[in-house]
């Protein structure tokens, strides 16, 4: 168990305290938005902070639409900004 | 409501009531719409907005569908943008060679009946729908299948009718009818009486109850259906996509749970996934077995949707008649009363053709197509289940 | 298949208290919670896998939590001599199905793999808690605008500070711990904007935080506000948020006695990079409506569950405790959770202390009276629509604007919240109206008209209580599969 974990956000390395949420890690790294809206293309990040509003959706290790405020960081985690999920024909 | 005496009172502010109000005002009639809830609060707000020819065969319903299609594109074409009218076409897919053989037979009959349909070979399917499973035997493409957003459609038709002088009274419940002998001369409501030349029963799934208030039998019954709604996605499903069995299930009278796959994208990015049919009265209990079966069948066609989140589901009650044809026309058993209801899962698409025919019947105009197959008095007591 | 006497949903103050009490009365209990560890929003704290000496920093009633947590751990162990608790953390209920005389809860993991897809129990205590109520403001969709509770969660659980210069705005005593928490963590809090005037409630603003038994807390806040020189401005509201890609400044305005914006007072903009908003709380009601329990509108215009003197709903076997019976804070929630557990135990044929029941009922009645007074002192100001513009976003998910809602009403003839939703889509997106529901319901009515159950109940009905994947639904076990 280490107290610091390393992860990447859009390929850029960031560190976080073990046990933090992805949203907290991004906040501490000075990143405030990681998603753009479907209609207006507007930036979004944390809003409710407790899993209710789904504004903070982020792609975690290739899984889209995870709530950054609820997902705990893990060493080596890959975070990606974006918008909508792309559907893969093969399932 | 003292002093009002419209030519027509329309009961119900759903798709059928709205279309009737529009065509009646266009025909120069004064119209008042009464609705016990709010506008578009019944089945209109719990369906998909299909304008289909693909699930029909030669016969009166197809004639009505082709008439409606003409109206959506023609007379109402200028408003299409308001209600997200989209001629996206329907793709009916067959999973097996046997299913494809059946589909081919169907399309041959449909083509002879005037439906525009072309066969799609298995290796062409992905040009239409890149995310469909590759394990399909073939498909048929119906360019005439269209989609509208049903709530916007009904609300805008009501607005357009209002601009031509129609009145819409929500929160007004019809409690009975004004009579002069057999003749219906208006409605009694919880907010006062309205005398009118014609009373139109456009009460959707509740049209049977309303007819009973007038002492006539119109056997409109509820058939429950669920629809699943996904998270917003980028364009993923481009046409209305059906499994071949959908056509059979719309015509079935089976009581138990039936599901057949209907999948389509919407302007909002959500994908709507249906469909189920159950005869359980007006039971609003959400059935997990029904939802599960719909989801399972959808994944057989679109395996890539497996991780996609469902945000919600909704249920509605399709109004159906025992012979699966709608009721459209004036009622000789109660002169002054007319009905336009019972379109089962096709009421949105057929609303405009139905309303046009009804207004022709009320005004004595020559009917555009034969309306007699839809006559309200066609049900003998024995046929009513 | 796991079988339980009781399933408790939510491991905040009410749920923890309910689960522990019920197990101590001999019931086998499943405690289902979305969080990775118990505590709920109120006792959010750092990851216990990475212990910190300052675990309880910024917490209130912390010893109540550590006591409940210790009892929970004891009841989780095989050595427990009474009932047992199985804690199912990190899972959300997505569907409630009737199961014989009881209930089947269908679960999905918040993140990662689902460990337990279904919990069946003879009875349910629902303690879903709530979240900050929000009102739209021009610019509130900019990054850097957050719910006050979200700012608090970052501080308490993650030691993260959401901004450097903050304004904390809205109404209610909860603004105080958020502002002082930010200041203690090193942020500059340029103002607390409290929309209420608090006259008739308390002579000093700080009394707003003073639950009778929590006078010390009020003194503590007063000291912290003074220490960090945080201005506490009453009858003051944030009327617009400015910035291109994130918050840069806010406009503020002054309200008159009736809660309308004063046009004769002009206040300078505040340069901030963080806005924390809270307008009281919205209880989570989807599980209550999912079991078919009836609801009512509380003093604060929140939809809440109808419960009797024993926390029973009108659905046999379903109990509710905590904010979902009416927002009233943690102390009340703890008492309600305990009483619900006593009721469930008694209804299951276990002996319970009548004296405890009476004590809890008295405490709850007192707590309710206090909560009602608090709600009356902190209403949503009458003029909250005054500072909206036609292009102000109301529904953050679907990006529905005020203008589109007005069109649905004026042009299209929508006369209620449900129809506005159908035509203009507020509440149709990812959060299913949890954030904009209150505001959208208010905007669907003539200004100033109070909300009714028939406005709110249709919006609170969410068949899927949480988003669920098609795959999970397609493979869900259902009660129709027969006995397993």
Automatic annotation (TrEMBL), chain A:
One of its GO terms (molecular function) is iron-sulfur cluster binding. InterPro entries: 2Fe-2S-bd_N, 2Fe-2S_ferredoxin-like_sf. Keywords: Oxidoreductase. The keyword Oxidoreductase applies. It comes from the Bacteria. SUPFAM superfamilies: 2Fe-2S ferredoxin-like. This is (2Fe-2S)-binding protein. It comes from Nocardioides turkmenicus.
From TrEMBL, chain B:
Residues 7-360 form the FAD dependent oxidoreductase domain. SUPFAM superfamilies: FAD-linked reductases, C-terminal domain, FAD/NAD(P)-binding domain. One of its GO terms (molecular function) is oxidoreductase activity. Gene3D superfamilies: D-Amino Acid Oxidase, subunit A, domain 2 (3.30.9.10), FAD/NAD(P)-binding domain (3.50.50.60). Transmembrane segments: none annotated. The keyword Magnesium does not apply. Pfam families: DAO. Keywords: Oxidoreductase. GO terms for cellular component: cytoplasm. This is FAD-binding oxidoreductase. It comes from Nocardioides turkmenicus.
UniProtKB/TrEMBL annotation, chain C:
It comes from the Bacteria. Pfam families: Pyr_redox_2. Keywords: Oxidoreductase. InterPro entries: BFD-like_2Fe2S-bd_dom_sf, FAD/NAD-bd_sf, FAD/NAD-binding_dom, Metab_Enz_Cyan_OpOx_G3PDH, Opine_Oxase_asu/HCN_bsu. Residues 44-58 have a biased composition (Basic and acidic residues). One of its GO terms (molecular function) is oxidoreductase activity. Residues 38-58 are annotated as: Disordered. Residues 4-331 form the FAD/NAD(P)-binding domain. This is FAD-dependent oxidoreductase.
């Amino acid at each position: 168990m280490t107290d610091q974990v390393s992860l990447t956000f859009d390929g850029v390395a960031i560190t976080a305290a073990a046990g933090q949420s992805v949203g907290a890690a991004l906040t501490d790294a000075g990143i405030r938005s990681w998603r753009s809206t479907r209609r207006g293309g507007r930036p979004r990040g944390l809003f409710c902070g407790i899993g209710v509003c789904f504004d903070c959706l982020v792609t975690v290790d290739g899984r889209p639409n995870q709530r950054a405020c609820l997902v705990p960081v893990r060493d080596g985690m890959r975070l990606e900004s974006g918008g909508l999920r792309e559907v893969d024909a093969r399932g | 409501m003292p002093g009002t005496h419209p030519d027509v009172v329309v009961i119900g502010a759903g798709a059928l009531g709205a279309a009737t109000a529009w065509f009646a005002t266009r025909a120069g009639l004064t119209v008042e719409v009464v609705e016990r809830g709010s506008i578009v609060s019944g089945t209109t707000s719990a369906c998909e907005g299909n304008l289909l020819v693909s699930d029909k065969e030669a016969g009166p319903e197809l004639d009505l569908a082709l008439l409606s299609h003409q109206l959506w594109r023609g007379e109402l074409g200028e408003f299409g943008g308001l209600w997200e009218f989209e001629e996206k076409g329907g793709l009916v897919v067959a999973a097996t060679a046997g299913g494809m053989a059946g589909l081919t037979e169907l399309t041959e009959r449909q083509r002879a009946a005037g439906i525009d349909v072309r066969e799609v070979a298995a290796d062409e399917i992905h040009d239409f729908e890149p995310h469909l499973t590759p394990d399909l035997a073939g498909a048929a493409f119906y360019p005439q299948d269209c989609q509208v957003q049903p709530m916007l459609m009904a609300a805008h038709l009501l607005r357009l009718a209002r601009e031509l002088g129609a009145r819409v009274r929500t929160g007004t419940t019809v409690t009975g009818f004004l009579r002069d002998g057999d003749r219906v001369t208006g409605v009694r409501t919880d907010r006062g009486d309205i005398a009118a030349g014609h009373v139109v029963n456009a009460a959707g799934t509740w049209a049977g109850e309303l007819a009973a208030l007038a002492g006539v039998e119109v056997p409109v019954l509820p058939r429950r259906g669920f629809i699943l709604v996904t998270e917003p996605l980028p364009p993923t499903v481009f046409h209305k996509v059906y499994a071949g069995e959908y056509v059979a299930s719309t015509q079935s009278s089976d009581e138990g749970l039936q599901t057949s796959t209907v999948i389509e994208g919407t302007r909002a990015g959500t994908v709507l996934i249906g469909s189920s049919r159950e005869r359980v009265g007006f039971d609003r209990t959400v059935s997990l077995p029904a939802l599960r079966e719909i989801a399972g069948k959808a994944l057989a066609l679109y395996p890539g949707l497996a991780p996609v989140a469902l945000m919600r589901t909704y249920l509605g009650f399709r109004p159906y008649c025992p012979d699966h044809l709608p009721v459209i026309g004036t009622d000789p058993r109660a002169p002054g009363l007319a009905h336009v209801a019972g379109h089962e899962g096709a009421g949105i698409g057929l609303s405009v053709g139905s309303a046009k025919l009804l207004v022709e019947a009320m005004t004595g105009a020559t009917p555009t197509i034969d309306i007699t197959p839809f006559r309200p008095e066609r049900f003998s007591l024995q046929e009513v289940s | 298949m796991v079988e339980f006497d009781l399933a408790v949903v939510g491991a905040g103050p009410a749920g923890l208290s309910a689960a522990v009490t019920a197990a101590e009365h001999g019931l086998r209990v499943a405690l289902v919670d979305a969080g990775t560890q118990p505590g709920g929003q109120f006792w959010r704290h750092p990851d216990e896998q990475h212990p910190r000496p300052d675990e309880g920093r910024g917490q209130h009633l912390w010893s109540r939590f550590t006591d409940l947590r210790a009892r929970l751990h004891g009841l989780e162990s095989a050595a427990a001599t009474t009932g047992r608790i199985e804690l199912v953390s990190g899972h959300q209920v997505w569907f409630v199905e009737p199961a014989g005389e009881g209930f089947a809860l269908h679960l999905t993991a918040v993140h990662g793999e689902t460990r337990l897809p279904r919990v069946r129990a003879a009875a349910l205590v629902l303690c879903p808690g709530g979240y900050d109520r929000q009102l739209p403001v021009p610019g509130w969709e900019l990054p850097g605008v957050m719910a006050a509770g979200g700012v608090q969660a970052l501080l308490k659980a993650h030691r993260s500070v959401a901004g450097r210069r903050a304004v904390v705005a809205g109404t209610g005593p909860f603004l105080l711990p958020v502002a002082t928490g930010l200041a203690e963590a090193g942020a500059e809090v340029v103002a607390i904007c409290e929309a209420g005037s608090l006259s008739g409630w308390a002579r000093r603003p700080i009394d707003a935080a003073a639950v009778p038994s929590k006078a010390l807390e009020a003194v503590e806040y007063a000291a912290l506000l003074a220490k960090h020189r945080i201005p506490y401005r009453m009858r003051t509201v944030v009327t617009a948020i400015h910035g291109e890609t994130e918050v840069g400044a806010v406009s503020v305005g002054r309200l008159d006695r009736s809660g309308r914006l004063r046009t004769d007072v002009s206040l300078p903009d505040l340069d901030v990079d963080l806005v924390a908003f809270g307008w009281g709380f919205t209880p989570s009601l989807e599980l209550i409506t999912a079991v078919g329990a009836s609801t009512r509108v509380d003093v604060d215009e929140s939809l809440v569950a109808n419960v009797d003197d024993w926390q029973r709903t009108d659905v046999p076997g379903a109990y509710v405790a905590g904010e979902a019976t009416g927002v009233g804070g943690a102390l009340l929630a703890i008492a309600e959770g305990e009483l619900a557990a006593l009721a469930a135990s008694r209804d299951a044929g276990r002996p319970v202390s009548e004296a405890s029941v009476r004590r809890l009922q008295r405490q709850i009645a007192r707590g309710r009276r206090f909560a009602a007074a608090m709600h009356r002192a902190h209403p949503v100001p009458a003029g909250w629509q005054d500072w909206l513009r036609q292009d102000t976003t109301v529904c953050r998910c679907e990006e529905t604007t005020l203008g589109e809602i007005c069109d649905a009403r004026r042009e299209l003839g929508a006369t209620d919240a449900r129809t506005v939703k159908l035509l203009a889509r507020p509440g149709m997106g990812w959060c299913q109206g949890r954030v904009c529901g209150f505001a959208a319901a208010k905007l669907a009515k003539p200004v100033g008209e109070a909300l009714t159950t028939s406005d709110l109940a249709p919006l609170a009905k969410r068949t899927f209580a949480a988003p669920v994947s098609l795959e999970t639904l397609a493979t869900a076990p259902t009660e129709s599969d027969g006995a397993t």
